[in-house]
Amino acid sequence: MKELIRRIEESDFEHAAPLFKVPYKKSIEELKWLFKDPNDKNEYNGFVCISNEELVGVIGYIDVSYTDGTVDFKGVIPMSWQLKENYKGFAGILLFKKVLALGDFCIAIAGSSTAKQMYPMFKYRYLFNIYEYYKVLDLKSSFCLITKKGRLKSLAKLLWLNTARFRINIKFKKTRNVVFENYNQTEEQIKEINYGIIRRKLNKNQINWFLKCPLVKSMAFKVYLDESFLGYVILYIKSQDGCNQGRIVHLPYVDDKHLSYEIFHKCLQILKKHKCSFVSSWLHHDAHSSSLKNHGFKRIKNKIIPFYLKDKRNVFENHNLDNWFLQYSEGDKAYRNFPFFSV
């Protein structure tokens, strides 16, 4: 049984979508957006495996560029790796190897139990864990998130998170003039300030790709300190059972705790204005951790996201990888597992 690996085409999506079963079910519309190359509207970033004239496997990837302020690093993040149910063959390995051949390095974030077992075979190495942080904005409206399944456990989790809701640290006061300006999708990218931290470098096409996600309401802002450009903020809002949940997808890196606190404050103001009852953020670096805690965010201990790296060309050989500033804007994580109590 010979398997053919080729780049995914528009006509493939109607055959690829049925491969994704609950809880990973994806529509054709979602897959087309997810696989769309932000920098080339005529291309999709993914491959399929054809066996006996039948589509038996699919994998997508996202081209990523990271910077430490002096050097740019270009790599890929595999995503949506799926095979036909009961299929037996080498399609999974062949598809993954096809993506691994791209870029100077490859990142893997979490993944299925099968994927995690295969990472060592592909010479990925585990680096560290990423943690999700949550904040209750409106306890009463958050109750609609609790489903019949696991109701008591979900209720206990929600009440525990709410204990930090009104936490205020008087050390953090508004001392800086931080301004959020609506992002214009047609403008050219403005260079962000760099501080020597490894972080995702977004261009206007990639920001526009985030904003086109069909499953959420999205917003983007340019952030200024007085007249100095700091970077971009991207926010997502998703409605579930009449309850709005917010997500802080992307933030600029700043090394000033007071400035960081003020940026988070403005994000929360916007999400409250949109009647979000709940908000989540996803960070690895210590730069914003104090701001999260002092805004009443809490980390749930079992919400752990392992981070893996395959540095094919040793581009990070002389870098401290603990200085990696990671957020929801890595790969396809921005909109994944959004309904809080559904996972």
List SSEs in N-to-C order.
EHHEEEHEHEHHEEHEEEHEHEE
How many domains make up the 3D coordinates? Answer: 2
User: What general form does the structure show?
Assistant: globular
How much strand? 25-35%
Strand count, sense and barrel status of the largest sheet are: 8 strands, mixed
* CA-based gyration radius: 20 Å
> What is the name of the CATH architecture of the largest domain?
3-Layer(aba) Sandwich
What is the CATH domain class of the largest domain?
A: Alpha Beta
* Beta strands, count: 14
Tell me roughly what share of residues is in helical segments. 10-25%
**DSSP helical segment count:** 9
Mean pLDDT reading: 86
Protein structure class: alpha+beta
CATH topology of the largest domain: the name is: Aminopeptidase
* Poorly predicted residue ranges: none
Distance between the termini: 37 Å
Strand order of the largest sheet: 5-13-6-12-11-10-9-7
What is shown here, in short?
With 343 residues, the protein is α+β, with helices and mostly antiparallel strands.
Which key terms come to mind for this protein?
alpha+beta; 343 residues
Question: What do you see in this structure?
Answer:
The chain has 343 residues and is an alpha+beta fold. It has 2 domains: 3-103, Aminopeptidase, CATH 3.40.630.30; 131-304, Aminopeptidase (3-Layer(aba) Sandwich). The chain is 22% helix and 33% strand. It contains 9 helices and 14 strands. Strands 5-13-6-12-11-10-9-7 form an 8-stranded mixed sheet, with helices on both faces. A hairpin with a 2-residue loop joins strand 9 and strand 10. The radius of gyration is 20 Å and the shape is globular. The two termini are 37 Å apart. The model has no long low-confidence stretch (mean pLDDT 86).
